[in-house]
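Please, does this match?
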Amino acid sequence: MKEEKQRRRSGQSRQQFERSDKLKFILIISLSLVSAVLIYFYITTDKEHHGQEKDAETIVPFTPEKLDSETDSVLYTFGIQKDWIKKINPKDKDLKKVSEQNKDLLISKEVMLPRDLPAIELNLDMTNYFHSRKLESQVVEDPRTKNLTMTLFNINDTSDKPAGLIKFNFKDSLSRNASDICIVIDSIDAVTLEDADEILNSNREFSVFLPLRNDKAEYQSLVTEQKTDHLIKFYTGNEDDILADFRDDMKESQWKSKVKSAAISFANSGGIILYNTGSNPEFYNKVKEEFRNNNIKVYEDTIFTEFNPGENKVSSLIENIKSGNKNGKTVMYFSIFFTIDEFREYEKKIQELKKSGYKFNNFSETFKRN
């Protein structure tokens, strides 16, 4: 009897234990489900909240006047002048067409463009700007003239009524007020061979001075094998100038022989830049003329625009270019040394100038153009 009672008690305890386990399991599952629901609700609400904050930041109320002004600001970054922008003629057929659908257009402009302006880049910048103002653009290009017609639509307007019209028309007589720029990189051998290779493999819109020392053969090969436009730097001086390539105390046969040898060795160069460090002007002119007699282009060092780099060399260069252009210089040549970091900074910063119409090219091409 006692054993039977004990078995009954043991069975009851086991049943109670199993029941307790089931309750715990159900409770855990329930809590997990509740937690999952709460987490989902929190994440969803948080996203919606941040989305509303983002929309509040990006959707900035604007007036037609503000849209007009901001549009002009984008156009000005391409070197487009104020008098190239005007209202579209009321009789224009495209304007009439969109006005029939919406009389209250936010903007209507006609913009005259010079032929050298890259329409693809202009279209991209304008499209991105209008998108930031919740305006969608549809662009049609005339296959014959390459003129662009941009129709704007309000993204939030389900009626699909036109909100604006801009016409971009190319005109042969227009040209942007921007100089031709030539950069000649000096002392390319002062950076590592790896960095020199990176510089020479970039956009190639520059020239370099070819290193002439025998221990710089690797740099010479790098320049010539990549067919980088390069110049040769030579100096004339007096009898005390031991570093001069041509001294005025040399015998005529000696310096003429040296000129002839250089003309053969550097026949593929873009030319000679001849510096005068102290020789008399007559001797300097004789050396210059002898190079020309040997069919080598020779230029005086005065071809380079004076440049005094400030604390930030690249920023100073950009400001010098802008200042020279403002003062009416149509072409500028600069001789400058870049570290690899300075060169990378230079490549980034000239994009703004190129966008507004400045032409960057190597020495040979720049001289040919001007």
Observations:
- The first helix runs from residue 2 to 58.
- Residues 1-10, 47-60 have pLDDT under 50 and may be disordered.
